[in-house]
Amino acid sequence: MARILLITGGARSGKSTFAEDRAAAYAPPWAYLATAEARDTEMTARIRLHQTRRGPDWHTHEDGTALVETLRRTEDGFGVRLVDCLTLWLSRLMEEDADIAAETGVLCDYLRGTKTPVILVGNEVGLGIVPANALARAFRDEAGRLNQAVAAVADEVVFMVAGLPMTVKPA
Amino acid sequence: MARILLITGGARSGKSTFAEDRAAAYAPPWAYLATAEARDTEMTARIRLHQTRRGPDWHTHEDGTALVETLRRTEDGFGVRLVDCLTLWLSRLMEEDADIAAETGVLCDYLRGTKTPVILVGNEVGLGIVPANALARAFRDEAGRLNQAVAAVADEVVFMVAGLPMTVKPA
Amino acid sequence: MARILLITGGARSGKSTFAEDRAAAYAPPWAYLATAEARDTEMTARIRLHQTRRGPDWHTHEDGTALVETLRRTEDGFGVRLVDCLTLWLSRLMEEDADIAAETGVLCDYLRGTKTPVILVGNEVGLGIVPANALARAFRDEAGRLNQAVAAVADEVVFMVAGLPMTVKPA
Fold first, then answer.
1. pLDDT per residue over C4-16, tens digit each?
2. So what EC number does this one have (chains A, B, C) (predicted)?
């Protein structure tokens, strides 16, 4: 079983479901590091629904952009940590005008050194037409760089297509 | 030879050509289930051109969203049926405000049970930046779900890149 | 080592870095055929920066859309030629209102016959939602056709995901 697994792919390609399936191979309990923000009642309801579906072996952590702090806090007591997802984390970092390269560096340093497994979900957003919007172009550049950096420290990388994993970096 | 084959990929990645090549391995005649709608003279001309190119061993069926009915009607007398493509079918179902989950269920039940092979062409539309348009976002979510559902019942799934098939689910 | 290698993938998927790494396996000097146009000071600075980073074993050629002429001129004296990238070349051809099918044919004929290796970088732009803009739709169709044509004459094709190569056509 991989210590660091990156699951990437397009929207609705089955990344989260596959991530949860892979997590189930580790000893419970499992930590779920949610990077989505509950901005309205609909979003809050959706997040709660997902939480209920995952069941009691999952412990949800919602700490906004403080991802590495949460990873440090969950080193002990969990069989695996699932980060869902890197792209929303990036999106919030950009909103906060954070230093993306520095944050990526801190995350990758942490991943290199941790002994407790981590599964990270990413998103491929750079396979369409160049966006007309400058912010969207910047975002897809940053998302591509982040995925490359995490893939470089991962022990296993898969690319999801239609709910099925294609091996990018074998475990 | 796969009983149910899903061919997915981006625009102009060679999906239809590969689908026709794979169909040629089955005994003729072959049924072509077109989901594109001839909305104008240009589109009509383009559809006729493709039909002529495919040749007399292909029998074209154009029944709009009545895909499963056409699949049932072509159970006998054809070596294989080619559905080109799932994404246009979905697009028309959404226009008709149909129950997509229910329609997907009926299609997948049919595919699980049929004895006459079916090749289905899908489209990957979720690998770009999140669309600003709400309908486009809903469409890419539905397309992703549809591809996952069909891939789950398929015996073989390929992802086309630059005219070449990459194996997602081996036959 | 492949005579003709096509490296395709999304934005910031590590195509250029991988291309330069693969080029390093051939005897120097290496020819870098840049298709990007220095339209402003920022772009010029960026191009110079890349040039400096690549180092003295790389000889940069910037000849706009005259790609095949430059390939012919670099047949002798170079271990390998790197074309970075096909999509910018296409973009400039479309601006010049060139005959894309004819230009593609000339390039592919050249690639079929040359003895000096060529590495070509392409872009996958057809995996997002259908663009609302007609020119964008035409561009993604042409980019898909160009990638298919080059992939057909290539000895090896890879698809980059998160900085890692997936084999599309094995060498």
1. 999 999 999 999 9
2. 2.7.1.156, 2.7.7.62
Is the Cβ pair C148, B11 closer than 8 Å?
A: no
Please count the structural domains in chain C: 1
Cβ partners under 8 Å of residue C131, min gap 6: A128, A129, C137, C140
Distances (CA, A) of B70 to B3, B17, B34, B84, C125: 17, 22, 10, 13, 33
Nearest to B168 among A11, A129, A161 (CB): A161
Mention every residue, 6+ apart, whose C-beta is less than 8 A from residue A100.
Answer: A90, A93, A94, A142, A145, A146
Q: Which pair of structure tokens corresponds to residue B34?
A: 């077109």
Which residues in chain A are closer than 8 Å to C162, comparing Cβ atoms? 6, 8, 122, 144, 147-148, 150-151, 157, 159, 168
Rounded distance between C-alpha atoms, residue B5 and residue A161, angstroms = 14
Q: Provide the residue range defining the domain that includes B120.
A: 4-169
Q: Which residues of B are catalytic?
A: 50
Contact B140 A11 (CB under 8 A): yes
d(CA C86, CA C36): 10
From the list C152, C62, C155, C150, the residue with the least C-alpha distance to C100 is C150
Other chains touching A, judged by 3 or more CB pairs under 8 Å: B, C
CATH of the domain at C82: 3.40.50.300
* Closest Cβ opposite residue C163 in set A132, A143, A151: A151
